[in-house]
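Worked example 3. Consider a protein that binds zinc ion.
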Amino acid sequence: MQTLIKNISSLVTVRADGARVKAGAEMQNIGEIRNGAFLFSDKIEWIGTTQEAEKLISERKLLPDTIIDAGGKTVLPGFADSHTHIVFAGNRSDEFAMRLRGATYQEIALAGGGILATVKATRTASLEQLVEKSRKLAWTAIRHGTTALEIKSGYGLDTATELKMLRAIQLLKLELPVYVKTTFLGAHDFPPEYSGNRDKYVDLICNEMLPAVAEEHLADYCDAFVDKGYFTIEQGKKIFNRAKELGLKIKVHADELTNVSAGELAGRMGAVSADHLLFASDASISAMKSAGTIATLLPGTAYFIRMPYAPARKMIENGMAVALATDCNPGSCFTENMQLILSLAVINMRMTAEEALTAATLNGAAAIEISDKTGSIEVGKNADFLIADVSSYTDLFYHFGINQISEVWVRGENVILNPSLRG
Ligand SMILES: [Zn+2]
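Given these inputs, the predicted complex is written out as structure tokens:
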């Protein structure tokens, strides 16, 4: 079954010609085809202009079963949201309201708020309750154009609950029509039981949690929050070395609150990505660049907790590959909407529209190692794309704060219109 979509005013391909990721100045190159057309089954089979498609059809060299007239809309690759925490229980809107009234972190913690509030709720929730709540968030993300999701554990901070969260992600992976990658984040924070002996919790992660995660093949990546007040460089190194021994790849929550050279650690450990990086030093940027570690920036978090934004321009000008993700989580950034992240990236991190699109598609897919099959519209890749109700990709940025995506296609299936795929 082959479908041709034609009369695409702006066909954004993010063509990479076999490259895994686009770095530095190459991020500007999004391979736009004006008045484009493409043919697909579950994979992309042909790409060109509408005139070329019509000529090939008249010569019977293209024989689509169905032709869709896009009527001058824009088509772009699906968004790969490579950093989320959408599996959790509870609700922290009361704490958010306290913060808006000027409450300090300590006052919020005393009132029972903060990450430990989510830990408490997640420990008592059933597997089914976790799946039900996350399913809703995942579908909101999909309706806003997300076709690949990374989801982390990290609200259990004990072996049983961390495993329960990872099993919830595995169940979501089975039922969602989008790509799902899983990250073990037992080192998200220290549980209250170990507040007096943090190294003992690191031992629990290394000796009990990681082996159990590896044994059941519950995660693709191991992540740790390496920052002031959280895991030290030494503790991070210990956890990552153990994870690598067990066959897991590395991601790092790095330099979000202050510069502790966690970006440098990410580079040295050969991490697939280092994420946040609000305070990344020049040494971190150069270590990540030489290791091919992707800088995953999360401007929604800087916005939501009123922090300075990560130095995206400096990273791109230094030739790094930058990805964009939501960091969707109940405390520091509660949004599933990648279009909002694009807006924050261009306005507050001064990325260009083209760089932001590359970062949210191909580079996001590279940050979860699936850019060989998705993240761009190219012959041979899976037919994963979005139809946006605008005549040019720049309208996605110009007209902000609303959902511009009218159709979401994954592996050649319209996942919004096909009720059998809907959660
Ligand atoms: Zn995070």
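Take a moment to read the result before moving on. The mean pLDDT is 96. Residues 83, 85, 253, 327 surround zinc ion (CB under 6 Å).
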